[in-house]
Design a protein that fits this description.
alpha/beta; globular; 5 helices; five-stranded parallel β-sheet
Length: about 160
């Protein structure tokens, strides 16, 4: 049916999306930093699933991934930007270093942008494509705690 790339597909929501796409006839390409975990979970999916190493926080990794994808598949029909990291195991902005915040933005926001920057021209050239950007409740302003980075913003009630 089509080629679907899922970032951060080692577990959780990414893996669930990969399973659902496989069940609907797509060939899922599970991506992430832990290739051993990717291989293990891909073997349990229905149909044919592929895996590829990808660190969305790295320009070089994204470039290498798309070079390989274009050579092997020649197309991409669906991109699910799911990769994300929680730094220091907490979303607490007051107890997080500036370097950790920069890493989080690089991975969690710019990672999706890097992927879209590469995939949109491919999808435009083939005349079709879908992009799904996944976020968590941590991205919602109403879930921020008292020590969050945006503490000065008024809360909606």
């Amino acid at each position: 049916m089509g080629i679907a790339v899922i970032t951060g597909a080692e577990r959780g929501l990414g893996l669930g999306v990969a399973r659902a796409l496989a069940e609907h006839g797509y060939t899922p390409i599970l991506t992430g930093r832990d290739t051993a975990a990717l291989e293990e979970v891909a073997s349990k999916l229905p149909g044919v699933a592929r895996t590829a190493a990808l660190d969305v926080a790295s320009d070089a990794s994204v470039t290498a991934f798309f070079a390989g994808l274009e050579a092997r598949e020649g197309r991409i029909d669906v991109l699910v930007n799911n990769a994300g990291r929680l730094y220091n195991g907490r979303p607490d902005g007051l107890n997080t270093t500036a370097e950790e915040i920069i890493e989080a933005i690089n991975n969690n926001a710019l990672g999706a942008w890097r992927m879209m920057q590469r995939v949109i021209p491919m999808m435009n050239a083939q005349g079709y494509g879908r992009i799904v950007n996944v976020s968590s409740a941590m991205g919602a302003l109403d879930s921020l705690g008292p020590n969050s980075v945006l503490i000065g913003l008024p809360r909606r009630r």
